[in-house]
Specification:
Shape: globular
Radius of gyration: 22 Å
Helix content: 25-40%
Bound molecules: flavin-adenine dinucleotide
Low-confidence stretches: 493-500
Largest sheet: 5 strands, parallel
Number of helices: 14
Number of strands: 23
Length: about 500
């Protein structure tokens, strides 16, 4: 079965829905989604908010400067400038869609987060910004007759004719394959947190979009830059928990401290800013404690009854574990949180494959450099997504695609229990060796173990996509020898080439 469209969008987070809406009705658009429209992916989980220089005294120039500092100056500067300048317009657009930002004294309430030099974080429902954003976008999309939804479907192959992209193969939950044809395909598939044993990301964030892009011939860039959040609620058991609740940084801002199981407040020795040190320093110090066999806790008891009012999400998540943070220490682990790397795209979100675009967390625009400034990711997804949709929409309807020779049989198989076991193993390998602290030996070991797993999988096994992306992340880590931003290498000798040879 083949369906004709002008534009196919894979993913319905902030990025995918912005593309679909931005296209404006002049094209026939298909949106393929793993779950329900606007109900899955990381967008719904976003908490803190969306960065935009709209407050008194603030400016896009200052926002851009903060972004470049956070990114260790490895950012794509024109992309950063464009993003910071686009932010106020993105906010106006969201307001026009009916998004209910929090208001204070009749103005948009602006929070301040670490490494932002001004209060510029817009939020909604306190720490429920992503849920409100997803609601506003979803309600705007469901009323558009030109947007067709393929829900509970997995995009499993990108179709090409010669160099040009011509469509996507999707598998629905009954296992049926559909061929959707279009000259424009946008990847908006989110991040890779699920490749790690501990992650704040939902199950959809498993890097399948990166595998699709790689298989279609797109370039992937800066895959080694993975941001780890220092504090997620530790699982109660050693079982493989897909997604951990975040324990927000605002708790530390409000006075909560980190202690180990000996009662030592170890951040005092690690940084003059103690618990308020930058995210990567806190994550690394927590990791070192865990590596020494210690357990780590957030002590928020000094906040007392304020916890219930100010941090209801934490109180709820803890109560599901039988914990009361007013009385108990909260066990924490760091967690894979955001991927700065992705499909290399230009300022127009174009990959090097004609007809293939990428937006949001799956893309690498270079905006974040080596580390993301908090609350810039929703902004990036919205700004680049909307602009791409508008550009494609201006082209209007395309010439129908006549015939596609790719065999639909190339698509991946259905998931088996073996896939789940392999995925669990991969998550452990990535956590142990490709996580917060990397060493040449650890990366070499990870590469070897992943290659063994790849050889043991049947052709077409779904988990091969995750193994591929894991291997590409390891190889990117091996190429970047120096520590920079979120990529931290311990021990400088020896380094290994990807083929396993030690180099001086
Ligand atoms: C707990 C948490 C808190 C966060 N807080 C903030 C914050 O406060 N501010 C901020 O700026 N950022 C925050 N982030 C990051 C931010 O939420 C994400 O970077 C952003 O939402 C990514 O949007 P996206 O549209 O690119 O992808 P997502 O929102 O992740 O959407 C991906 C979509 O792709 C679909 N998909 C994936 N693979 C396939 C496939 N093969 N076939 C079909 N569909 C597929 C999924 O179903 C989903 O619809 C947070 C992230 C998390 C996890």
């Amino acid at each position: 079965m083949s369906e004709q469209f002008d534009l196919i969008v894979i993913g319905s987070g902030a990025a995918g829905l912005s593309v679909a809406l931005g296209s404006g009705g002049s094209m026939r658009v298909a949106v393929i989604i793993r779950g329900g429209l606007g109900l899955d992916g990381s967008t719904c989980w976003a908490q803190g908010g969306l960065a935009a220089a709209v407050g008194p005294g603030d400016s896009p120039g200052q926002h851009a400067a903060d972004t470049i500092n956070a990114g260790s100056r490895l950012n794509n500067k024109p992309a950063v400038r464009w993003l910071a300048e686009s932010a106020p317009e993105v906010v106006r657009w969201l307001l026009s869609l009916g998004m209910q930002f929090d208001i204070s004294n009749g103005h948009l309430a602006l929070g301040r987060e670490a490494a932002h030099s001004f209060p510029r974080i817009l939020h909604a429902g306190g720490d429920a910004t992503g849920a409100e954003l997803a609601r506003a976008l979803r309600e705007a999309v469901v009323h558009q007759p030109w947007i067709e939804r393929y829900e509970f479907s997995d995009a499993c192959e990108i179709l090409k004719r010669g160099p040009q992209v011509v469509g996507v193969v999707a598998r629905n939950r009954r296992g049926e394959l559909t061929r959707l044809l279009a000259p424009n395909v946008v990847l908006a598939t989110g991040g890779i947190g699920q490749l790690y044993r501990y992650t704040s990301n939902p199950v959809e964030a498993d890097g399948s979009g990166l595998a699709l892009a790689h298989q279609a011939g797109a370039e992937l860039a800066e895959l080694e830059f993975v941001q780890f959040h220092p504090t997620a609620l530790a699982p109660a058991s050693e079982s493989d928990i897909p997604q951990l609740p975040l324990v927000t940084e605002a708790l530390r801002g409000a006075g909560a401290v980190l202690v180990n199981d000996l009662g030592v407040r170890f951040m005092l020795a690690a940084s003059s800013q103690a618990e308020l040190a930058p995210r990567d320093i806190v994550a690394r110090t927590v990791w070192q404690q865990l590596a020494q066999g210690r357990r780590v806790f957030l002590d928020a008891r000094s906040l007392g009854d304020n916890l219930r009012h100010r941090f209801p999400n934490l109180v709820n998540a803890c109560s599901q574990r039988g914990l009361d943070p007013r009385i108990h220490l909260v066990p924490i682990v760091p967690a894979a949180h955001y991927h700065m790397g992705g499909v290399k795209v230009d300022l127009h979100s174009m990959s090097r494959v004609p007809g293939l675009y990428a937006v949001g967390e799956v893309a690498c625009t270079g905006v974040h450099g080596a580390n993301r400034l908090a609350s810039n990711s929703l902004l990036e997804a919205l700004a680049f997504g909307k602009a791409l949709g508008e550009r494609l929409g201006q082209r209007g309807p395309s010439v129908p695609i006549s015939r596609v020779d790719n065999s639909i049989g190339h698509a991946v198989r259905r998931e088996s229990t073996n896939d789940q076991m392999v995925m669990s193993r991969l998550r452990q390998i990535m956590w142990n060796h490709v996580g917060i602290v990397r060493t040449p030996e650890g990366l070499q070991s990870a590469l070897h173990q992943i290659q063994v797993l790849e050889r043991r999988c049947l052709a077409g096994a779904p988990v091969l996509r995750q193994l591929l992306v894991g291997r590409l992340v390891v190889e990117a880590c091996m190429r970047r020898r120096e520590s920079v931003g979120a990529h931290h290498m311990e021990a400088s000798v020896p380094h290994y080439r990807i083929d396993g040879q030690a180099v001086a």
